[in-house]
Amino acid sequence: MMVARSVDVVLLGPPGGGKGTQAKRLTAAFELLHLSTGDLLRDEVKRATPLGVEAQGYMQRGELVPDELVGKMLMGRLHSQQAGSGCVFDGYPRTLAQATLLDGLLAELGRRVDVALYINVPDEELLARLTGRRSCPVCGAVFHVVHNPPRQEGICDACGGTLVQRADDREDVIRERLRVYHESTAPLLGFYRSRGNLAEVQGVGSPDAIFEELRAAMGRLKR
Ligand code: AMP
Predict the structure, then answer these.
(1) Is the full-model pTM beyond 0.85?
(2) Cβ neighbour number for residue 71 with a 10 Å cutoff
C-alpha cells in the first residue's frame, strides 16, 4: 500500500507579494498546515505574551525579529499533530540561519523542504499594494482599498470585523521591510536554487492565475 508522504513547502517572496493569499490556497488544495510566522507573531503581540512583548518593537520598525525567538515559536507548531502531513511556511525562513534551522527541525521529523516557491514582484508594485492593504484582525481576510475593496468600506466581507491597516504597512516602515528583504531574505533564493527545488513564479496578475502557476510548479518539483 502506498502511504502518502508529507510535503513541506517554503513560500519565498517580498512583503506584500501575495504569500499569505497563496499560502491559504495551497494549504487548502494540498491539505497542509499554514504556518505564517508573521501571523503567529501578531497573535503573540495581541495577547501580550512575553514573546509578543519582545517582538513588538522589531515589527513596528519593520526589522526582523531575532532568529532565536522566531525559531522557538515555530518549533512548537511543527511538533503539533496538524503539522504531520506537511506545512506551507509563509514568511519563514527569512535568513540563511533560519533556513538552516528549518532543515534541522524538519530532519528531526524525517522531513525536508520539498519545494521552495518564489513569488517575484517588483518593488514599486509592492509599495502600492502594501500602502492600500487593509486586513481583518478577526479572521485574517485581506483587502485592498483600490484593487480588492470590501463590499462595505472598512468592514470585512467574510466576518463583519472592522478592517485595520497593519502598523507596519506605513510607507516608511514598508521601505525598511523591503530593504531588509533584499538584504537578508533574497539570498535564500540561491540557497534553494542550488538544491534544485526552487520554482519562480511572476507574482503580478490575478491571484487565480498565480495560484495555477504555483500548483503546476508543485507538481513539477514534488518528489
Ligand atoms: P509578515 O507578516 O510575514 O510580513 O511579517 C511581519 C513582521 O513580522 C516582519 O516585518 C518581521 O518583523 C516579523 N517576522 C515575520 N516572520 C519573521 C521571521 N521569519 N523572522 C524574523 N521576523 C519575522
Answers:
(1) yes
(2) 18
Alpha-carbon distances of 62 from 101, 147, 163, 223, rounded to whole Å: 22, 24, 21, 36
Question: Taking the domains of the chain in order of start, what are their residue ranges?
Answer: 9-221
Cβ–Cβ < 8 Å for 93, 184: no
Query: Is 141 within 8 Å of 149 (Cβ atoms)?
Result: no
Question: In this predicted model, what pLDDT tens digit does every residue of 99-157 receive, in sequence order?
Answer: 999 999 999 999 999 999 999 999 989 998 899 999 998 998 999 998 899 999 999 99
Q: Is the CB of 37 under 6 A from ligand 1?
A: yes
| Ligand 1 atom 19 nearest Cα | 92
Return the C-alpha cell found at 54.
519582545
According to the model, what pLDDT value does residue 223 have? 59
C-alpha span between 112 and 7 (Å, rounded):
8
Question: What percent of the chain is modeled with pLDDT above 70?
Answer: 97
19 part of the active site: yes
Query: Does the domain at residues 9-221 carry the CATH identifier 3.20.20.80?
Result: no
Q: Which residue from 41, 67, 96, 170 has its CB within 8 A of the most atoms of ligand 1, so it is best to mutate?
A: 41
Dihedral of the alpha carbons of 186, 217, 35, 12, in degrees to the nearest 10? 10
- 216 sits in the region (left: phi over 0; alpha: psi -120 to 50; else beta) called alpha
- 199 in Cβ contact with 176 (< 8 Å): no
